[in-house]
């Protein structure tokens, strides 16, 4: 990792959540999964997509898993072992926000979430990368790789595996370069784009 890139990577604070939610919403605006969850044309789509990252980012922050780079123009949402799924208390606290985000699409959100949970709960303890993205205009400068490496170095030190679900083909090469390999298949609900589960053993 280049030293100048490494210097931009740090753990996020509560003051970063708003900017990172906007950064990740921009990065995922055309992502196949988000286009399925909240298709173009639904009411207040941009704000609803942003709120997804605000809610998940806040929960990640509470567990020390939110990272930022490039002055907030890149971010990663991780969860430590045992916290990839929210607790009953967290779910209850977040429910009003998710109902506002999902609206009439709430059933679609629940179907996708259930499909991911079925695959996920069979896995041994690991760090979970839920989202990683860079604001358009700053993509291709290595910030995603720097964010990945910062946490994967910790995984190696702690002898912990890492896991993610890739939502688009173009990201697979990045993940493979960092040691991830395809790990089984996900049985997604009808109409949902395919996702690729990927696993990385510590080095």
UniProtKB/TrEMBL annotation:
PROSITE patterns, per the entry: GNAT (PS51186)
Gene Ontology MF annotations: acyltransferase activity, transferring groups other than amino-acyl groups
Pfam family for this entry, one: Acetyltransf_7
Protein's UniProt keywords contain Transferase: yes
InterPro entries for this protein: Acyl_CoA_acyltransferase, GNAT_dom, Trichothecene_AcTrans
Record has Transferase as a keyword: yes
Source species, domain of life: Bacteria
Keywords carried by this UniProt record: Transferase
Record-annotated N-acetyltransferase domain positions: 117-203
Protein name, per record: GNAT family N-acetyltransferase
Source organism phylogeny: Bacteria, Bacillati, Actinomycetota, Actinomycetes, Geodermatophilales
């Amino acid at each position: 990792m280049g030293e100048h890139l490494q210097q931009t990577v740090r753990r996020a604070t509560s003051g970063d959540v708003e900017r990172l939610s906007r950064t990740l919403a921009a990065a995922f605006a055309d992502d196949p999964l988000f286009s399925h969850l909240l298709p173009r044309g639904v009411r207040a789509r941009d704000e609803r997509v942003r709120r997804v990252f605000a809610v998940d980012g806040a929960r990640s922050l509470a567990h020390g898993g939110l990272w930022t780079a490039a002055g907030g123009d890149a971010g990663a949402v991780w969860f430590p072992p045992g916290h990839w799924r929210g607790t009953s208390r967290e779910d209850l606290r977040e429910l009003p926000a998710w109902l506002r985000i999902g609206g009439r699409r709430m059933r679609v959100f629940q179907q996708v979430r259930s499909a991911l949970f079925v695959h996920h709960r069979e896995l041994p303890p690991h760090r979970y990368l839920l989202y990683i993205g860079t604001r358009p205009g700053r993509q291709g400068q290595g910030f995603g790789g720097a964010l990945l490496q910062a946490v994967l170095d910790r995984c190696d030190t702690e002898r912990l595996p890492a896991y993610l679900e890739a939502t688009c083909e173009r990201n697979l090469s990045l993940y493979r370069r960092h040691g991830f390999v395809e790990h089984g298949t996900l049985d997604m609900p009808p109409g949902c784009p395919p996702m690729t589960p990927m696993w990385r053993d510590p080095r």
